[in-house]
Amino acid sequence: MYDESLSQEKLKREKAESMMNEVEPLSRQRVVIVGGGFAGIAVAKRLAMTPVEVVVIDRDNYHLFQPMLYQVATAGLPTTVISAPIREILHKQANTRVMLAEVTGVDVERRQVVLRGQLPLSYDYLIIATGASANYFQHPEWGEIAPSMKTLEDALAIRSMLLSAFEQAELEPDEEKRRALLTFVLVGAGPTGVELAGSIAELANKTLARDFRHLRPSLTRIMLVDAMPRILPTLPKDLARSAEKQLRHLGVELHVGKMVTDVSGEGITFGGEFVATRAVIWTAGVLASPAGVWLGTEVDHSGRVKVTTALTLQEHDNIFVIGDTACVLQGGKPLPGVAQVAIQEGEYVAEAIQRQLQGEHISYPFHYVDKGTMAMVGRAYALAAIGRLHIAGLIGWLLWVGIHIYNLISFRNRFIVTFQYALNYLTYQRSARIIYHTPDGGKFKREKHSHSM
Question: 78: helix, coil or strand?
Fold first, then answer.
């Protein structure tokens, strides 16, 4: 009996010591990942079985699947199916812990990450993957009027703005004010702007058409504006022309080659023309997080950190910068800020760290393998450029839906989105048509940096 008690006590003590070692593996080197987006999560998952301590820091507790964010903004999907708690994603990794905190700087000399309201966190390897925010091109005040499409807060603000516009127009007796309420202007004709414009047109002409008694949502005016000479500059010209044709079929007005010169609460001015509107949505350009300032290193015109071919700082091979925060040149051009680039960079960095732990250096530079570019343009119509293969229409839509659902973070989310897409397709209805009222009157105000710090 006595021996059995000692034995049980010994087992308990050994178990407690084992748990402490898992929580604080003091003998292991520490890899700190700032940002829980595509790039940061890719690094963390690849280091799951590596003998290091991994710390993922993010000021939000969730990972966001940004390619489907416009679906939340147009009431097609709820927020929970395109996001997942970071702790849930990484909970099986015994060497990984998650911190809900905000990074405000990096002390390169002391190898410490500076946190708001907390003690600094030391690192052996540092990965900066803090993403990007909207670029208002020297006019940050426009951000108070024209929400961007970078965060869940942005998407919810846009959704409330869109749905509230129809509700207010239903009650508005003045014809001129009603027209302004039903005029939606999107600035930026890249994939996000095109997808959002097509989805708003479908929302107005199909989903809401039968729900209002005193106005016709089909009178909605949707304008897509860009300073570039054509829409979708990252796609081949033939696919861009197909997108233009489809957008016009949906009733979207295209205004390309026209620069925005003013945005106010009364409307927007572009190409010398003033348009009265209460709803401007900003989908043009990105601005990197302040990581370059933290690190005291060279950045490009968008604030992205210039890195080596191994994705490190020139003077510090233990500091990696990836995702939208990094300026990575390939073929003389910077890589686009898309999910596949971020994921591949994250996987490369994880391998580089594993090699360094073994006393080696990764022998080849990072090279992005382009798996194709896609864009949705309304109901059952999408574009896909996969190598020399160009697809437009229903087949492109099926590819877009299949690939995006497959890349969602969990089986639960894949199942719900598949069911929701099928229901939306068959009925034209959108279940997430809820207007959220916040204490500040409906605006989601937040510091305009990445969601990933």
Answer: coil
**DSSP code at position 199:** H
Task: Report the alpha-carbon distance of residue 254 to residue 248 in Å, rounded.
Answer: 8
Give the C-alpha separation, 66 to 60, whole Å.
Answer: 14
Residues 6 or more apart whose Cβ sits within 8 Å of residue 237: 230
CB atoms inside a 10 Å sphere around CB 53: 22
Q: Which residues of 5-43 are buried (b: 16+ CB within 10 A; e: fewer)?
A: eeeeeeeeeeeeeeeeeeeebeebbbbbbbbbbbbbbbb
Name the token pair of 216: 């016709």
Decide: 449 and 178 in contact? Cβ < 8 Å: no
- Tell me whether residue 404 is exposed, middle or buried, using C-beta atoms within 10 angstroms of its C-beta: 0 to 12, 13 to 18, 19 or more: buried
Q: CA 277, 281, 285, 289: dihedral to nearest 10 degrees?
A: 130
For 272, left (φ over 0), alpha (ψ -120 to 50), or beta? left
- DSSP β-bridge partners for residue 187: 225, 282
What one-letter code names the amino acid at 364?
Y
Rounded to two decimals, the pTM is 0.86
Identified catalytic residue from 172, 195, 244, 345: 195
The reply to whether 345 belongs to the active site is no
Residue type present at position 288 = A
pLDDT band at 409 (very low <50, low <70, confident <90, very high): confident
Has residue 436 got a pLDDT over 80? no
**pLDDT tens for each residue of 204-247:** 988 888 788 888 777 899 999 999 999 999 899 999 999 999 99
Rg of the chain, C-alpha, whole Å: 24
Residue among 188, 249, 244, 239 nearest 383 (CA): 239
Taking CA atoms, 373 is separated from 246, 389, 406, in Å, by: 18, 11, 16
